[in-house]
Amino acid sequence: MRARVDIWVRRLRQTMARLPLGTPRECCLCGARVWRFLPYRGGWRDAPPLLRSFRVIGSDLDNYLCPVCGCHDRERHLLLYLRQAELMAKIRGSHVLHFAPEARLTSFIERASPARHILADPFPSRPGVERIDLLSIPYPTASFDLVIANHVLEHVADDLRALSEVRRVLKVGGYAILQTPYSELLASTFSDPGVCSDEARLQIYGQEDRVRLYGCLTRPRSTMRWRHKTR
Questions:
Q1: In angstroms, what CA-CA distances link 118 with 29, 68, 72, 130, 220?
Q2: Over the stretch 181-216, which tens digit does the pLDDT of each residue have?
Q3: How far is residue 155's CA from residue 149's CA, in Å, rounded to a whole number?
Q4: Phi, psi (5° rounding) for residue 159?
């Protein structure tokens, strides 16, 4: 009975969110004007206490899902960034490697007419996505103008090796977009092999398949291997 009530409440919230009541919000991917975006797993109120206390910056758990097209906030943020940084205009004729490709954002990139757009994931869930491990990218050095791995590095066993691979396949003057959740309150990135159960990872890292939580020393730590000679 409780499960049926939860389903009914969820459907009601989805329906209400579609209505342009009060101050409508607009989804930059589908253009729909909605009353609100839907929360992720109950929003920040139901997030693990540790994440709230560390004020983790990543997804907006209260305004996560578009009730019309189903895109999540990371897709919307990335599209806005690509436009604001004028990278979308540079995609035409370029070579793009896109890890964990967001379904709706992928169509925007395709419409920008790249010469090649490789969709990559170690566990492909739909046709057209190549099985590629970020730790061992099967493409030659200097193959891509743009590499996108949006909220991926926090899931990778060896993130410094992944960064090295990204650097290797980037062309001179290329761009890499590698967003991750992080906390400005943490002095350094936290990862511990003892945090190995789904529940422990959820409580400490914020998601069952994450293996670290980045802190303020993310930049100095990554630049130890990010010495690109193309500048």
A1: 21, 27, 21, 7, 30
A2: 999 999 999 999 999 999 999 999 999 999 999 998
A3: 11
A4: -70, -30
